[in-house]
Structures are given as C-alpha cells and as structure tokens.
Amino acid sequence: MTLLNNLEVLVTADEGYRAFEKAVVAAKTRIDMGFRVFDPRMHLLSCEAREFGSRWVDLLLAKLNEGVDITIALSDFDPVVRPELHRGSFKSLSILLGIAEMVTGHGRLRVTVEDHPARVGWAPRIALWPKVQSQVAQTCDWLNGLEDAARAEAIRFMPRFTEFTFEKDGKIHPKRREFPPMLPVTHHQKLAVIDDEVLYVGGLDLDARRMDTVHHALPAEKTWHDVHVILHDKKRALAAREHLESFSAECAGEVSIRSPEGLLRTLSVKRKRNSGSLSPHVCDTGIMDRHLELIEQAERLIYLESQFLRDPVIADALVARAKTAPGLGLIILLPAAPLEVAFEGAEGLDYKFGEYLQAKAIGRITEAFGSRAFIASPAHCRKSEAGDRATLCGAPMIFVHSKVSIFDDHAGLVTSANLNGRSMRWDTELGIEISDPDQVRMLRKRVMGAWLPKGADDCFCAAAPETVKKWRDLAQQNASRAPADRSGFLLPHTASAAESFGTLLPGIPVEMV
C-alpha cells in the first residue's frame, strides 16, 4: 500500500476545474497535458486563476509569459463518423496557436492534434463503404445548409473531412470513389502534469458541457457527473509526463511499449499489415488487468461507478467472484441511459449494440449475485413530464461520466476508462490506483456520498455487504415517493428499456462500443 501525497478527490467539474486551475497558476517551469476535449475558451472558476483573466486562454498566455513551457496533446477523431469532434479539436488548435502568437515571454507552447494510427482493414472498409458514403453525404448536407460564412468557418476546422469532398457551384459534395480510412480507436485520456510533481487525472475533459456541481440543479441534458483526482507525487507525475511524450509513437509501433510506472493504462498499437481486421493490436491492458485482479481478491464490497458496463470480460470476472465469495456485496451506479440515446434520440446500430451488451452484462451479474447486488441510477428530485429515456421514475436523469472502481478498503481506481471493451483494450486511457486504506475510505465516502441525502449515516459508505441493502432500501423508498419528496439522488436502475432497444450484431467486436 502507498500513501499518495496531498491526494484530493474531485467530484464534478466544479471541484475538478478549480483544483486544475490552481495547479496551473502555481506552475513554475512546465505544464504537460493530454485531453480528449480541451476548449481554451472555457471560463475560469477559481479566484486564483481569475486574477489573470476570465478564460483559459488568459491563464495559458499569462503562464507562457512567465516562462512556463506548455505542451498539449489533443485527441483527433474520425472525420466521417464524428465530424463535430474532429471540428472541435481543430478549432481548439486554432485558438491555441493564436495564443502562441501573442506570447511576449520565454514560455514555449506546443500543441498537437493526435489521431490513433490504427485503421480498419481494407475488406471491412469496402463492406462498409455505402454506410461511410452516406455519412459523408449527411455532413455535406449539413454544411450546405449553413450560410456561406458559417460553412467556410466550419470547413476551416475540418481538414481531414475535406479530403473526401469537392466543391461545385458553391456546394460541398462527396467524392464517390473515395474510401475514407476508418479510425476504430481514439485517445480517451484526460490528464495534466505540472512541474513533473503534480498529477491531475481521471474522467474529466475541459469544456462548458462538462460543467456541473454536486447539486446537479441543471436540466437533465446539461448535467454531468464526473470524478478526477489530483496529487503531489513526483514518481507518478514524471511517469505520466513520459507517457504523454511517448504514447503517440507507441501506438504507431515506432517504439517499444513501456507501461508507466505507478500508473494504470490502456494502449493499443496499429497493425503492421491489416487487410481484414476491424481492431488494433491490443498491447497494454493494465487498467483491465488490475480490475480483474481486484475483483478476484474482493471479499466484502465492490463499488463500480461508470458511464458504461458493457465488457463481457469484466462481467465474467464478477460472475465468477460471486460464486467463490458468498459474503461479497456489489453496488453498481450507471446513468439511466447513454447520453446520445437519452438526449439526442440516437437509434444507430452502434448504440443498440452497446445497450444489448450492457443489458446482457447486468442480467448475468444480477443473476449471479442475487440480493447481494444492487444497480442504481441517479435522478433529480423534481418531476419530469417527459416519458423518454431521459426520465427515471418520473424524474429527469443525471448523466454519469465517472470512472471509479473501489474494492473493500483495499484499492480504489480512478481512471479515464469506462467498463466497456473499448476502454479496457483499445482506446488510450490512463489512471491511478489508490491503495492506502484510509485514502480508499476517503475516496469511497466522497464518491458514494455524492449521491446520498445530506447527513446520511456513515454506514451508507461502509465497505460491507450490508451496504447493498441500505442503498437498495433508500432507492426503492425514493422510487415509491414523488420526486420532490425523495432523499438524495438514488433510484433503482432499470434495464428493460435497454433490453428492448438493444440489438446483437454478430461478428462485430465488443470493443467497437
């Protein structure tokens, strides 16, 4: 067990962004970052940071003028499948490069937009060509629906999408004979290293959409619950910085794979020859491996809080442990529905496949554990008139994006990885293990306590199988009451909607979703 120095558990962006800002303000020599989403237009929250201006652009410029070197690795995305994210990354790049032009001090700014070099093989690309062409055409239609100035602005930040289009008569059209390379993998990490001494890591990217507080007073579609940690640990901070310097070359197969010391990671590598595969070469599965080890060792209570629980490997491990540890309890907290399904009405096969996998995993786990397991989802304490997937027991759902796993008082994992095959084996992910018993208890109290009514007894956060019943009783009591009369946010999760919505896709790797 290791005591982590100055460990802080940050629940929601309100806490996470303030701590992140303060760490950046205190930077003396260098700041190294890797984010899936990083919007430098984001408003600053902390008093310390707001002394430099109102937005992150002001803070970054001030630190550069102080002589602090800043390196940022932004994730890129498949420009056909996720054009809005591709556009967002290059918009952020443009803003950051604009900051570099204003620097009057000695700090150096280096910004890269990194896509994972793995590509879908030729055979599946040919098979999927009609679908890909349809997606290119849809984005062209969207662009053509914009005013000229807005269209030019959008295209400016879509450099890899425009490779598959041409302009004629003032409109954007798909190149019909193009076979766009399909990107099956992404860099999903969210971390920052300050002065090789402070590490900020977990599930939070930086933008306005993720902004929320522990009160979750926003409309359902604007809620966002997440968990990050910050700590002062030179060994782990240096390992994280070395990861940021090497992950791109590792994914490309240009250097040997070396797992970062003291950290947990997922990292895959592009295949040298790939004619028929949808997948990359799976290499570093440290996050999954540690989950499997800790599941096998757990005796009293496992608590899992995640955006998804879809991975059959994790489900298999939980089912097996249920049989060998009769005194083990299990609590899982998930959002009532995936974000795109709940708030955007998504009905694509990828969403249906993901829901199928999660419903199947939950069914197997609950059957194995019986009454020793409880699956929860959070919702507001107010009435919702909608009857869609964004509503749970008559109340608007709270979207959960956390990635936290806690095992007895033995270990807690805070990472960027969901409990799905993609995060466990394909995408680039990073996280940390907390192993000091007192710090594990602190983590559990902060994470579990965020969902409980104010003043809830400590037994609701105990590493004991009896905690399962306490959570179930509270959630069921809430479900039987009007939303305004409920205590805390907990409600029973229901998988029935996912079961009816979900679809099995034979031959498609579970890691795709």
UniProtKB/TrEMBL annotation:
Q: Which UniProt keywords apply?
A: Hydrolase, Lipid metabolism, Repeat, Secreted
Looking at the record's lineage, which domain of life comes first? Bacteria
Catalysed reactions, as listed in the record? a 1,2-diacyl-sn-glycero-3-phosphocholine + H2O = a 1,2-diacyl-sn-glycero-3-phosphate + choline + H(+)
| Single GO MF annotation | phospholipase D activity
Q: What is its main location?
A: secreted
What is a single cellular component term in the Gene Ontology annotation? Answer: extracellular region
Q: Which residues form the PLD phosphodiesterase domain?
A: 183-210, 396-423
Biological process (GO), any one: phospholipid catabolic process
| Cell location | Secreted
* Pfam families on file: PLDc, PLDc_2
For the keyword Nucleotide-binding, the answer is no
Q: Does the keyword Transmembrane apply?
A: no
Q: What PROSITE patterns has UniProt attached to this entry?
A: PLD
InterPro entries per UniProt:
PLD-like_dom, PLipase_D/transphosphatidylase, PLipase_D_fam
Known role: Could be a virulence factor.
Q: What is this protein called?
A: Phospholipase D
Q: Which organism is it from?
A: Roseobacter litoralis (strain ATCC 49566 / DSM 6996 / JCM 21268 / NBRC 15278 / OCh 149)
